[in-house]
Here is the input.
Amino acid sequence: MEAYERIKYYREKILGISQAKFAKKLKISASNYSNIEIARVTLTNRVLIDICEAYNLNEDWVKYGKEPIEKPKSREAEMLDFLKKINLEDNIIAQRFILSLSKLNFEEWLLLDKMISNYIKINKEANNLKNIVNNKTDDELSREEIHKLIDFELDQAEKGKTSSVSTSINSVDKEKLKNKRA
Here is the structure.
């Protein structure tokens, strides 16, 4: 099989697209591409390279039939393909995030998993406390609820964090809570 025949095979059997659609991606006319497929026009090295780049083809396969047909994709290319599938290819933040994730090694994945688990736990606890605070007035808070709230706030303060509870309990005076605890 010659190079032009392999290209035709790839277009028809693997991609299942028309000559016009295949040629459009190469930025050449459909008639010019058609002439390449039937060997009326010689496949130039420039067009060969354009085809390989546009369709991620292995140049050795096109020229000599040496497998694999397609070049292996980089992690970045695979991630960008994924973003296209979920319609986020124009979202720069999503791209940077996904590409950053693609570069993590095993230990970094474990650390990220631990951080996410801790975040979920803290967020759940904060939401529970926020619900307690938002559903009651200062005087309706039980001693146990006040202790939980203070312990959580102190724990977050020791870690150098501001919890979502502390930002949402403006109606509750923290000094009053500390005095009630004593």
